[in-house]
């Protein structure tokens, strides 16, 4: 799925605003009868790497990903650290 760059930047403000931030691709999908949850938003709003890893443990194990690499990628991609 393609994500709109502004959505990724703005989603960090979701807890602070009184309205829901929705990816425009989600709206297009829903208009076509498809509902695919916004995984990026769900994981990003967990707010920390450890809960994200816990929520994704099955995928990490199923794809035999190195946990240190996963941590590094999450730190960079979701939180801009590194």
Structure explained in plain terms:
It is a single chain. Helices cover 56% and strands 0% of the residues. By secondary structure, it is mainly alpha-helical. It has two domains: 1-37, no CATH class; 46-82, no CATH class.
Summarize the structure.
The protein is an all-alpha fold and about 80 residues long.
- Distance from first to last alpha carbon: 25 Å
The tally of helices reads 6
Instruction: Categorize the overall geometry.
Output: globular
Helix content: 55-70%
Structural class: mainly alpha
- Rg, rounded, reads 14 Å
Low-confidence stretches: none
In total, the number of domains comes to 2
User: Quick one: how many beta strands?
Assistant: 0
Oligomer state equals single chain
Fraction of residues in β-strands: under 5%
Main β sheet profile: none
Mean of residue pLDDT?
A: 85
Name the helix and strand elements from N-terminus to C-terminus, one letter apiece. Answer: HHHHHH
Provide keyphrases for this structure.
single chain, 82 residues, mainly alpha, 56% helix
Question: What's the SSE blueprint?
Answer:
Layout lengths: L4 H6 L13 H8 L7 H6 L4 H7 L1 H6 L4 H13 L3
């Amino acid at each position: 799925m393609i994500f709109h760059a502004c959505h990724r930047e703005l989603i960090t403000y979701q807890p602070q605003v009184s309205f829901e931030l929705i990816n425009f691709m989600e709206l297009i999908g829903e208009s076509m009868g498809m509902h695919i949850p916004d995984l990026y938003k769900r994981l990003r709003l967990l707010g920390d790497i450890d809960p994200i890893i816990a929520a994704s443990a099955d995928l990490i194990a199923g794809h035999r990903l190195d946990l240190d690499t996963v941590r590094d990628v999450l730190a960079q991609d979701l939180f801009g650290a590194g």
